[in-house]
Amino acid sequence: MLTLTNVQIMYDRAIEAVRDVSLTVDGGRIVALLGSNGAGKSTLLKAISNVLYPEEGEVLHGEIALDGRNLLTMSADAIVASGIVQVPEGRRLFPLMTVEENLTMGGFLKSRGDVSADLDRVYAMFPRLKERRNSTAGYLSGGEQQMAAIGRALLARPKLLMLDEPSLGLAPQIIDQIFETIVALNRDEEMSILLVEQNASLALQIAHYGYIVENGRVVLDGPAERIAGNEDVKEFYLGFSEAGARKNYREVKHYKRRKRWLS
Question: What is the pTM of this model?
Answer without folding.
Answer: 0.87
